[in-house]
Amino acid sequence: MKIVPRTVKGMRDFLPDEMRNRNYLISKFREIFEKFGFEPLETPVMEYSDILTGKYGTDGEKLMYNFKDRAGRDVGLKYDLTVPLARIIAQYTQIIKPFKRYQIQPVYRYDNPQKGRYREFYQCDIDIIGTSSIMADAECLSVCSSILTELGFKNFLIRINNRIFLNTLLSDIGFTDSEKIIVLRLLDKKKKVSSEKLDAEALEKGLNSEYFNNLITLLSESEADPVSFLERLRESGTTDGIKALLDLYSFAISLGVQEQNIKIDLSLARGLDYYTSLVWETEIVEPAIGSIVGGGRYDTLVERFSKEKIPCVGISFGFERICFAMKELSLFPKRKEYSGIFITIFNKDTLHESIYIAYELRKSGIPCELYLDKKKLKQQFKYASRKKFKWVIIIGPDEVASGKAVIRDLENSSEEKVDQSSLIDFFINYK
RNA sequence: GUGGGCGUAGCUCAAUGGUAGAGCACUGGACUGUGGCUCCAGCUGUUGAGGGUUCGAGCCCCUUCGUCCACCCCA
User: Fold this and answer.
1) Nucleotide minimizing C1' to CA distance for residue A109
2) Which of A73, A306, A313, A402 suits A324 as a labelling partner, its CA being 20 to 30 A distant?
3) Of the CATH numbers 3.40.50.800, 3.30.70.2210, 3.40.30.10, 2.60.40.10, which one belongs to the domain with range A341-429?
């Protein structure tokens, strides 16, 4: 009985065509992260359970992959890249701060798979550790905008808000702390659901409908011109978090974020529990796949591992969704239909001539593929044709005798004979 | 965690409850120094798994697994 080949639920293989796209994306991320001075970091797939738990809320923990290893230790697969980073900061105190790192690795969530959602998926994070400066927050937004622009996205919107402000606002309206959590969840939904449905859900959750209506009214008032709305509020006494939010907005603009790509949205809440003040989220208008980038300031996360209080800010790119969106919008670079050089093996007498040519080309930095099996020329051509090579090189007995090589152009069905010694020049000139 | 659609050859899919099929792909040949086109031949199955109903199940029922989608939540 043969073993049925299959992949574990929610996990995927990436075949070469897809890997080429993914590698392209990763290289773009790296390039821009490094341009802004971020340094690379990797952490293990697994952490001890106590490291992982306690920061994602009960819903998050249901999605955690945790189990015992052979020695009975409680371990889990990492759920995001932020918590391992907090551990790193507490563990390696010699790291110079502010520490700017980037990290591109898979994370794991025991979720039910569906469109664009998997149990293993890549996240791509940058964080700045050890500064409270809002310039750091703004830098994250600038990276976000640079990357999306560089990748070719035109219609994206970064929405920003401050949880401190939102919190104060909710208290002023009259909500209790436990109600606030429910309200924040509902606000996250506001964009997707009709207002009737939202009201119904608020009622169902037992929220004071007068308070809730006040909130919704206030938020919709702010929508048209949030900046002057905030300034009016500031004059009337509510000040918590407003300055930070306005600063972030203006710093981001100075750092090159285009005005049409950024908006203060006072209803933005964000799910993760560990954000403490400024938060942001980016969505692309087309295709509508929700948020593709999210982040914020989380000043208390490192405290779990250390006596020190260390302010942190970061942004996480939804690698899989960006990949999906880029495919939809055809933003990946197109490959030439025919490319590359393929070297045939005529027979065992000419074998070493072919091998030598492959060696010479590769030594000169010209990529080429050498046929590996003993098959008829016809089969070798069929292979070359299916793999869409542009050039096929043939060294048969005639060519060995005359010191020449046949170069066949599969795309144009033409061929020519050149001196073996000028093969390298031929291909260098072609480039 | 909850709900729905779908599981048949490597892939895409057919088959009124009555003999499991086609196209593509693959292997070889026509064509012993040349791919795509054509023609010929060949290969391919516990119909996801287990149970039940029936004279008879790919088809109906139950269970289970997988997959896709939606909700919850999130990237």
Assistant:
1) B74
2) A313
3) 3.40.50.800
Complex ipTM: 0.82
Residue A30 pLDDT: 97
Q: Do domains A16-328 and A341-429 have the same CATH topology?
A: no
CA of A379 to C1' of B74 (A): 50
Q: pLDDT digit string (tens) for A317-332?
A: 989 889 888 888 889 9
Q: Per-residue pLDDT tens for A248-290?
A: 999 999 999 999 999 999 888 876 577 889 999 998 877 777 7
Highest mean pLDDT among A32-41, A202-211, A219-228, A263-272: A32-41
How far in angstroms lies nucleotide B54's C1' from the CA of residue A274?
61
The full set of domain ranges for chain A reads: 16-328, 341-429
This prediction's pTM: 0.89
Q: What is the CATH number of domain A16-328?
A: 3.30.930.10
Closest nucleotide relative to residue A399's CA, C1' based: B33
Which bases of chain B are contacted by protein, using any atom under 7 A from a CB? 1-3, 26, 28-29, 31-36, 46, 65-75
Nearest Cα neighbor of A163 from A54, A281, A84 is A281
Distance CA A291, CA A82 (A): 18
Q: Among A156, A104, A162, A118, which Cα is nearest to A7's?
A: A118
Residue A271 (CA) to nucleotide B71 (C1'), in angstroms, measures: 17
User: Which nucleotide across the nucleic acid strands is nearest to A414, CA versus C1'?
Assistant: B34
**pLDDT value of position A115:** 82
- Per-residue tokens: A358: 């492959």
Nucleotide lying nearest to A193, CA to C1' measure: B71
